[in-house]
Structures are given as C-alpha cells and as structure tokens.
Amino acid sequence: MKKVSQQHIYLIWILVTVFSASAAVLVRLCSIPAVSIGFWRAFGAAVILLPFWFRAWLKEGKPSIFNLGAVLAGVAFGLHFSTWCWAIQHTTLANAALFVALMPLIVPFIAHLLIKEKLNKQEFIGVVLSVMGAGWLLSRQFMNEPGEMGGSIVAFLSAVCCGVYFVIGRKYRGKQHVILFSGQVYIVAAIVQGAIAYIFFDGIFVGDTRSVLSLIGLIIFPTIGGHTLAIYLLRHAKTQMVSFSVPAQFVLVTIVAAVLFGEIPHVWFYPGAALIVAGTLIAIMNSNNEQEEKNIEQPE
After folding, report:
1. Predicted local confidence at residue 286, as pLDDT
2. Closest by CA position to 235, among listed 3, 65, 74, 54
3. Is the pLDDT at 154 greater than 90, yes or no?
4. Cα–Cα distance between 30 and 114 in angstroms, integer?
5. Which pLDDT does position 290 carry in this prediction?
6. CA atoms within 13 A on the CB side of 217
7. Three-class SS state of 104
8. pLDDT tens digits, residue range 261-300?
9. pLDDT mean over 3-26
10. How far apart are CA 179 and CA 46, in angstroms?
C-alpha cells in the first residue's frame, strides 16, 4: 500500500484535463451520428480494459460483475457522451465547451443531495455569476445566431449528466478497484447508447477512415485516459476539484478550435464566457477540499 501525495494528485488532474480536452476536436472530425460516436467511445474503452478488468476481478476475489452504483453511473455517462457529441456537432467548439463548463457549479447541488457534501456561500455566488453569463450568451445567440441555441442547451444537459456521473462515481466507487468500476461503467454506457442508436437512428455507424481514426483517438485519450483517470482521482480528491478540469478544458478547446478550425468567437461571447469562468473559479477555489488534508491509501 502507498500514500498518495498532492503532487501525484495534481499531475493526474493535469492529465485528465489535457486528455479530456482532446474529445471536442476528435468528435468534430467524426462524420457519424452523435450516439454512434458515444457508443464506440464506451464500447472501445470497455474492450481495451477487459484484460485488465479480468485480472483485477480475480485479484479482488471475483466480486459481483455489476453493482447498482456502476449501472447508475454508466447510464449518466452514456447520456453525457451522446449529448456532448450532439452539442459539438450543432454549435462551435468554444460554445459547447463553455456550457459544459457549467458542470462544476451543478456538481455541488447534486453532491449535496446524494453524498451530503456541504455547499458554501461562495458556491452560490459562483452559480449566480455563471447563470448571468449563460443568460447573456443565450440572449445574444437568440438575437444573432439562433441556430446555435440548440447546441448550447444540449451542452448544458450534458453538463448535468456529467455531474451526476461524477457524484455517483464518488458515492459508489469507494474502495472498489478503479478498473473494475470503470469497466462496468463503460459497458453500461455502451448498452444505453447502443439501444438509443437502434431505436432512433437505424443502428450504429462507423463512418469513413477519418472517422475511424478519430474514434480510435477518442477511445484512447479522453475516454480511457481522461475519464478513467477522473474516476481514479475521485477517490483522492473532492468532487469539485475533479470537475474543475472542465473550465480548464474550455480554455484549451477555445484555443485549439481557433487554430485548427478558424472558429473565432464573436465579441459578445467573451463577457458571458468571463462570467461563467469567474463563477466557476470562485465556486471551486472556495470549496472545502477536505480530501486534501487526509493521507489516503490506494491499492498497488
């Protein structure tokens, strides 16, 4: 057994941020329906993790293959994947990433309901600022680019699903091995999205060569790299610290979108973005991260 240092936690947080930020660009390069993208992300990750999952399963004494927490987290995770991909396909990358960046402000309320993590005054102030920013952006979009409103709203719903996934993961993962929990979550997420694909979209699609390569990248970097490490990090840090990677991803995505796709946000985008990011920073930086004061052990 070994103790986890703060330097280790910060390094994992940086990797989660960079890997997860790559998702927006890779999704934009895919030419298949959003739910198919989400399915292949989850299914591919489950397949790659299978040998590691089996080894961990044997080592842990062959526990139950599925548990309630993993199933609930998997449903939320699958819905987050599909809605996030749809939002990216129907608005700019910066806009989609910004509305998903509201997730850290949603997490405290979900965490308070499910795992009794305390809310504080600063988190409420952060929510007020971010709601003002979101309201500003939606009003500007309604007046200037109404076609982007659908993507913004769905991106917000994706943030809610992602917040539920994070909190459920923190509540139910406990001392369970990260690979065991992740494998269950990915399988359930794939099943949920596969069912949606066949019911509403006439099946699951693969796409052209560029789409296939992008899907492989999605499986390796943001899914296995980003989300699996995020689940690992949830055991060693408060939920809000983990979700703080989301506004950081927004900054990275906005820069990359401008360089690769020439997506320069409109002037009216920046005031709303500033309010949302400021609100998120206030909420996260003033959250009581009791996990940072504990020496938590992890299985080797």
Report:
1. 67
2. 3
3. yes
4. 36
5. 44
6. 18
7. helix
8. 999 888 989 998 899 888 888 877 766 544 444 433 333 3
9. 87
10. 10
Cα distance between residue 236 and residue 7, in whole Å: 12
> HEC string of 204-272?
CCCCCHHHHHHHHHHHHHHHHHHHHHHHHHHCCCCHHHHHCHHHHHHHHHHHHHHHHHCCCCCCCHHHH
CA 71 to chain centre: 17
**Cα 15 to Cα 9: distance, rounded to the nearest angstrom:** 10
Phi/psi at 207 (nearest 5 deg)? Answer: 95, -170
- Three-state secondary-structure class, residue 159: helix
pLDDT of res. 1 = 41
Distances in Å between the Cα of 157 and the Cα atoms of 70, 118, 152, 212 are 21, 23, 9, 27
| Residue 199, pLDDT above cutoff 90 | yes
- The Cα–Cα gap between 34 and 213 comes to 16
Residue 23: which of 89, 85, 78, 79 has the closest Cα? 85
Strand partners, 125: none
For residue 217 the two structure tokens come to: 């990248």
From the list 140, 144, 154, the residue with the least C-alpha distance to 91 is 154
Q: How far apart are CA 187 and CA 50, in angstroms?
A: 10
Q: What is the DSSP string of 131-154?
A: HHHHHHHHHHHHHH-GGGHHHHHH
C-alpha to C-alpha distance for 25 and 30, rounded to whole angstroms: 9
What mean pLDDT comes out for the span 97-118? 79
The string of pLDDT tens digits covering residues 39-71 is: 999 999 999 999 999 999 999 888 888 888 889
